[in-house]
Design a protein that fits this description.
single chain; 350 residues; alpha+beta; 3 domains; 20% strand; disordered C terminus
Length: 350
């Protein structure tokens, strides 16, 4: 039986986005950074409580419920920490003020509009597409440009405006000028003729812009405060990734999360967030790999993080032209969502 991929994709997007979508506005984000014992959360749009997952974000209107001998620590949007150790139900706003929010949700990162299928997966693997910096703002620091390795290529030429460099590796240090506020466009050409423009002809993704000096100064100061708070490597990394992403500092967010993945993080939210950013900046092959890594950690349990990784993987497969695989993953996401969604809204899906 042929899979109805169009219907499945539309139905899944509609169901998931109703219950789980990122808010349109940039709202304060409070991050669950430590969960011990029986801890549940209830987001404002949910009907019932679900098992808490370390690394997820909450709003001030959401609730936390603790059982006996449980504890939870929330990293509030104003960079204070709120720890609860007594059984009971708590409104997040009681412990995290809505004052000067430094950590915010990215308002347009999880756009619900699927990009049309572009280059087939097999073709994309043979192109030196730009990996980093990509679709991002950057600090005025030295930059290492990275791209996809092309089978059979032995040398690459990298061009950034008037600057040009050559290497036999898949990265190069950019030592050209960096003017604040100016966009820079990156092109990579392999010696076998393959070029990054075959993947991104109009430089929709293959660009970076240097932050204005005053903004960069403010952001560096905010980052310095976070780094001085004696957090674990994973806690600090997730907090910084959320912070960087909302500021469209995708270059920095990716670096932090890739470091956690390389250190074999066991937190599903690390893989989900990295996959989401890869997907957002058009790195479909890399998003596919990291989503699969994250899903391997989830086991058979239903969860918000698992459902959203399945949804992300379905979208990635669709963009790569793998329609059957896209349908399969979106159907899994839909089933996972409905298992949770019946608790969110008992009329949904019945």
């Amino acid at each position: 039986m042929k899979l109805n991929w169009k219907g499945t994709i539309q139905a899944t997007l509609t169901l998931i986005l109703i219950g789980w979508a990122t808010p349109v506005l940039s709202s304060p984000a409070h991050i669950l950074i430590d969960v011990r014992g029986n801890v549940q959360v209830k987001k404002v749009q949910w009907k019932d409580f679900h098992k808490a997952e370390s690394g997820i974000t909450l709003s001030g209107e959401d609730k936390i419920k603790l059982g006996s001998n449980a504890s939870v620590t929330v990293y509030c949007s104003d960079r204070n920490r709120w720890t609860v150790e007594q059984p009971g139900t708590y409104l997040v706003s009681k412990g995290c003020s809505e004052g000067e929010a430094v950590i915010r949700l990215c308002p347009d990162c999880n756009n619900d509009k699927l990009r049309p299928p572009s280059i087939k997966e097999e073709t994309l693997q043979q192109l030196p597409y730009v990996i980093s910096p990509r679709d991002t703002y950057v600090f005025n620091d030295s930059l290492t440009i990275r791209w996809n390795e092309v089978s059979g290529a032995t040398n690459y030429t990298v061009m950034v405006e008037d600057w040009e460099g050559e290497t036999n590796e898949t990265q190069i240090l950019y030592d050209g000028e960096l003017e604040p506020g100016e966009p820079y466009f990156v092109t990579v050409v392999a010696d076998n003729g393959a070029t990054s423009k075959q993947e991104d002809e109009d430089y929709y993704y293959s660009w970076f812009t240097v932050l204005e000096e005053e903004e960069a100064k403010t952001l560096r100061e905010q980052v310095a405060v976070i780094k001085q708070q004696k957090l674990s490597q994973e806690q600090e990394g997730l907090i910084l990734a959320y912070f960087y992403r909302e500021k469209k500092l995708n270059f920095e967010a990716i670096q932090v999360l890739e470091g956690l993945v390389k250190s074999e993080s066991q937190k599903e939210t690390v893989y989900k967030l990295l996959g989401d950013i890869y997907r957002q900046v058009g790195l479909s092959l890399m998003a596919k790999e990291v989503y699969q890594q994250g899903l391997a950690l989830t086991g058979g349990e239903k969860s918000e993080v698992k459902a959203m990784m399945q949804w992300g993987l379905g979208e990635v497969e669709y963009v790569l032209g793998n329609r059957d695989e896209a349908v399969e993953w979106l159907e899994k996401a839909r089933a996972n969502y409905l298992a949770l969604g019946k608790q969110l809204n008992k009329e949904e899906g019945e």
